[in-house]
Amino acid sequence: MNRLDDPPSLMKGRKPSFIGMNGGPETDDQQRLRFQVELEFVQCLANPNYLNFLAQRGYFKDSTFINYLKYLLYWKEPEYAKYLKYPMCLYFLDLLQYEHFRREVVNSQCTKFIDDQQILLWQHYTRRRTRLLQTAAEQTQHTNPQNNGIVQPKVP
């Protein structure tokens, strides 16, 4: 079963309900398609170069597009966020709610700086996480080496 098979049930509970092309409520297929399109778009926001692309083409000056970015904040809710592969996109979605950020991201130097900082964060996070996991594994082995790190309850 595909991870994206169950989103339509999530979509039904979300407001506002959407009108399909036939003038009635969206079908399950239309909801699934909208979910997938919005998921893909939100994840693209994790790429500072894509944000620069949108800014240079004037999307961040369009009030309709700004309202769409506000609407997409529902992705921060746990029942939707669990589908995200690139959670950094939520950080940028938050930043895009501010006019100052939308104005600055049109600058290529600003975008380059954000991109560099993002890469440094990933590198630091990966190294730090590896170090923490190694330390935890070593502590577990030292705690109870005869049980391969499995802690046995003490019986009085």
From TrEMBL:
<keyword id="KW-0539">Nucleus</keyword>
<keyword id="KW-0010">Activator</keyword>
<dbReference type="GO" id="GO:0016592">
    <property type="term" value="C:mediator complex"/>
</dbReference>
<dbReference type="GO" id="GO:0003712">
    <property type="term" value="F:transcription coregulator activity"/>
</dbReference>
<keyword id="KW-0805">Transcription regulation</keyword>
<dbReference type="InterPro" id="IPR008831">
    <property type="entry name" value="Mediator_Med31"/>
</dbReference>
<dbReference type="InterPro" id="IPR038089">
    <property type="entry name" value="Med31_sf"/>
</dbReference>
<feature type="region of interest" description="Disordered">
    <location>
        <begin position="137"/>
        <end position="156"/>
    </location>
</feature>
<comment type="similarity">
    <text>Belongs to the Mediator complex subunit 31 family.</text>
</comment>
<dbReference type="Pfam" id="PF05669">
    <property type="entry name" value="Med31"/>
</dbReference>
<feature type="compositionally biased region" description="Polar residues">
    <location>
        <begin position="137"/>
        <end position="150"/>
    </location>
</feature>
<keyword id="KW-0804">Transcription</keyword>
<protein>
    <recommendedName>
        <fullName>Mediator of RNA polymerase II transcription subunit 31</fullName>
    </recommendedName>
</protein>
<comment type="subunit">
    <text>Component of the Mediator complex.</text>
</comment>
<comment type="function">
    <text>Component of the Mediator complex, a coactivator involved in the regulated transcription of nearly all RNA polymerase II-dependent genes. Mediator functions as a bridge to convey information from gene-specific regulatory proteins to the basal RNA polymerase II transcription machinery. Mediator is recruited to promoters by direct interactions with regulatory proteins and serves as a scaffold for the assembly of a functional preinitiation complex with RNA polymerase II and the general transcription factors.</text>
</comment>
<feature type="region of interest" description="Disordered">
    <location>
        <begin position="1"/>
        <end position="24"/>
    </location>
</feature>
<dbReference type="GO" id="GO:0006355">
    <property type="term" value="P:regulation of DNA-templated transcription"/>
</dbReference>
